[in-house]
Every structure is written in C-alpha cells, then in structure tokens.
Write a structure and sequence with these properties.
Length: 395
C-alpha cells in the first residue's frame, strides 16, 4: 500500500523548513549575540539542511557520499539541537557538551561501520532511528521532570517524545522490512514517518522560539524584581508582593509577621575590609537566610544592609521562633575572605505581628518594626525585639 505522496517532495519541504529556520535564526542572532543557545539551535537547523539536502540528492551525486556525509550532518545537528534545549534549562555545562559531541562522534563511527560491513538500507534506518531516540531521552527527561518547567516546555517535550516513539517504530520496521525500507521508498510507513517528521520540525521550531522568548521574559522579570547583588526581591517587588499578602490575609483574618533585619556594625566592616568584602557578606547573609525560610515567605533587600521578611500566616510565637533561628544561624556563620581571614557578623531584628484588615499598610508595619529594631540596636545588637502595638499605632 502506498500514499499518493512523493517522498522526495516531503524531504524537499523538510530541507526548506530547516533552511529558512536557520536563515531567520542567524538574522535574529545578529542583534542577540549573547543568547548562545540560539547559535546551537539555528546552526543545528543549517546542519540538518545540509544533511537532508545530501540525502535528497541521493542518486544525483555519489550515493556513498550522500549517505555517509548526509547522515553525519544529521547526527551533528541533533547533538547541537539538544545542547540548545539543555541551555534553555541551564542544564548544559562543558561536561554535557563533551558527552554529546563524543556520543555524536561514536554514533557516526558506528553508522559507518554498518555502512562498510552490512550495507542494507533497513539496517542503516534502524541504527539512525535508535541512535536519535537515545540522544533525545535526556533532554525530554529534563523538560518533563523539572519542577520549574513551564507548560510550554512540557508540551515541547511531549512533541519530541512522540518523535522518539516514531523513531523506535521506524527502527523496528527497518529490521523487519529490510531493503524495502530505503529512504526514498513510498511505502505507507515511510510516507507517514516523513509527514510526522515535518510536523514535528514545525512544532519544534515554533516551540524552541517560544521557549527562548519565555526565557528572555523570565530574565527581564528577574532583573526588574530582584536585587542584583543578593538575588532576592528588591524593595519595589517586595512591597508589591507584601501588599498582595496583606490583602489576602486580611480577608482570611489570619496573622502575618513582618521583620526588619539589619546587619550589625556593617559600616565598620566596609571601612575595615572594603566594599568588596562587604558585598561578600551581604551575599552570604542573603543565601543562608533564604535557606531558612519557606518557599512562600517573602524576603527582600530594602537597601544597604537592611533586609525585610514577611511571614504569611505566622503568629507572634512562630515569628519569634523563626527570628531566633535566623539570628542564631547568622551568628554561627563566618565568611572566609582568604586563607588567613574569616569574618563573623551578627544581625538585629525588629518584629511586628498583626491580623491585618483593609486599613493595614506596609508603611505602618515598616515603622513599627523599625522602632523595634532601633530598640534591639540600643540594647546591644545581635538580638530581637517585638513591637508593642497600641491603637495609636494602627491607622
């Protein structure tokens, strides 16, 4: 049985698809040179263009050259494309790159051994299909299992999972049908495979571009909402999210606790050791405090050595326990500057706990916790003070 479609035409459309993807990608990269993962993806498309072109010209040019070089380009293209996908997830380091390029080289050697020792179309089809399926297992696993993967990323992973299934089926058919499974065969299995391959190519291109856009948007949002040095919320982002929490917990009639934290004698550290060391301490402090908080607690830098924490749902007892844990873990931490110098530092914390209502403002919570922090500083630092709220304090 055969479909009224010509395999050469299908392959030609795949060639054009890869070619235009590569051209448009390179045009885009002229203004986005820092996005290195785009280089990998669009050069992968150009390698696929060359590979499929050589296979399409099989019979027009020397068949051994077409098969050998064309399939080699396709293997290299897959390695580059997978590296691009892993880069988007920040899961591609030098080791991963070496593994995939080494695997590509090994795969090319295996393919050519099969070409020399057992030159049967079905065998080559099976080797290529199994190799490609193995190649794609790891990036699909990363995209699906990573808890930070977006719906888009998981959808793209499912598209390539379909490709893996098709490749495995194609490998089985290559073994079963042997010579009748050659590249230009118009049998129904071959035609359906190339139709699916064309659709997967389109979805893969669009999916990757959208994933790239998603990554860029995420980075822009992070720049706008996070402090560059400590990588926690900046003042503006903290205030926005704190107001949302106050509104939510005012409706629930549940408590929230607000901390104002200040590093003790930080000016002296800057004066004695320089601002570079001061920055190291701020980064260390932000890291250890973040590890002590829950995922939904808010943690931000208000400026200089002043930090804020909002604990949704925490009453005064819980807030005091958390604050004491933060104070103690900071007190027991030291920052190694070099082999001969290690600096210890402490913090003071002002706490206010309220059951918010519609009139509760973040400015009021800040003022109350600031007053408590001032008392903590006045009583010797490295301590916690809880704001005593009166009716005069609340608006």
């Amino acid at each position: 049985m055969s479909l009224n479609l010509n395999i050469e035409t299908l392959i030609f459309t795949i060639v054009l698809g890869h070619l235009f993807s590569g051209i448009l990608g390179i045009a885009y990269m002229i203004r986005h040179k820092k996005d290195t993962y785009l280089y990998s993806f669009f050069f992968a498309r150009l390698f696929e263009t060359l590979g499929w072109t050589l296979l399409w010209l099989r019979g027009t040019i020397d068949t051994s050259v077409s098969i050998s070089v064309g399939n080699s380009f396709l293997i290299i293209a897959q390695a580059l494309q997978i590296i691009a996908f892993l880069n988007i997830k920040d899961r591609c380091n030098k080791f991963i790159k070496r593994v995939y390029f080494s695997a590509a080289a090994f795969f090319i050697v295996i393919f050519h051994l099969a070409l020399l020792l057992h030159n049967v179309d079905g065998v080559r089809v099976s080797i290529m299909s199994i190799g490609m399926a193995v190649f794609w297992y790891f990036p699909i696993y990363v995209l699906i299992t990573d808890k930070d993967s977006s719906v888009l990323q998981k959808t793209v992973a499912l598209v390539y999972m379909v490709e893996i299934v098709l490749l495995i089926l194609r490998a089985c058919l290559g073994i079963r049908l042997g010579k009748s499974m050659y590249l230009m065969s118009n049998n129904i299995y071959n035609v359906l495979f190339f139709i699916c391959l064309y659709l997967i190519m389109l979805m893969g291109n669009i999916g990757f571009i959208l994933m790239s856009k998603e990554k860029s948007d995420s980075e822009l949002i992070k720049v706008a909402t996070h402090d560059e040095l400590t990588e926690i919320f900046n003042r503006r982002a903290f205030l926005m999210r704190a107001k949302e929490n106050i509104s939510l917990f005012s409706r629930r009639k549940e408590p929230i606790s607000f901390f104002l934290i200040d590093l003790d004698n930080f000016k002296k550290i800057n004066d004695d050791y320089g601002h570079f060391v001061g920055d190291m301490i701020l980064k260390d402090f932000a890291l250890i405090i973040k590890m002590q908080l829950r995922d939904y607690d808010l943690f931000g830098r208000f400026g200089g050595e002043e930090f804020t924490v909002l604990l949704p749902g925490a009453n005064e007892k819980t807030a005091l326990e958390v604050a004491e844990r933060l104070r103690r873990v900071t007190e027991n931490t030291s920052v190694s500057i070099d082999m001969n110098l290690s600096i210890k530092y402490t913090i003071s914390i002002g706490i206010v706990t309220v059951i918010p209502d519609e009139s509760t403002s973040i400015d009021t919570l800040y003022k109350l916790s600031d007053d408590a922090l001032y008392k903590a500083k006045g009583k010797g630092r490295n301590r916690i003070e809880i704001a005593k709220i009166t009716e005069m304090d609340m608006p």
